[in-house]
Amino acid sequence: MGVVVNPREWWSQKRKELETRRPGCDFMIPSVVETPLDPKEKQLLDTMAQDKRSKASQCTEEGLKAGVKAASIAAVVSAIPTLIIARTVPWAKANLNYTGQALVISAATIASYFIVAEQTILECSRKASYAASVERKQAAARSEAA
C-alpha cells in the first residue's frame, strides 16, 4: 500500500469504504459521552464518578498519614546512628560534614515516605476495587433472581 502521507485523508477514505460495504453498520463504538442518556442514567453515572472521586480522596488521605508516620520514624531511626557515627568513627569525622549528615538522614526519610505512601494508596485502591466488584456481582445476582 505504501506510506500514508496524510493520515486524516486516509482515515476518512477508509471510513467511507467501510460505510459503503455495510451501510448503517458503523464499526466505531460510541463512548458513553457520545450516546444520548436519559436523566436516570446520567444521574447514575454522576453518582458513580462522585463515589470514585471520594474513594480516591480517602485513599490519598490514608497514604499521606501512613507516609508521614513512616517518615517520622525513619528520621529518628536514621538520625541517631548517623549523628553518633559522625562523631565517633574517624573516617566519618573526616568525610561527613553537616551537609552529608543531613543528606543521609533526609534520603532515608524521603524514601520511606514515598514507599509507604505508595503502598498504602495501592492497597486502599485495591480494596475499594475489590469491594466494588463484589458489589457489582451481588447486584447482578439479585437482578437475575428477580
Automatic annotation (TrEMBL):
Would you say which domain of life the source belongs to?
A: Eukaryota
Q: Which InterPro entries match?
A: Enod93
Q: Which Pfam families has this protein been placed in? A: ENOD93
Q: What is this protein called?
A: Early nodulin-93-like
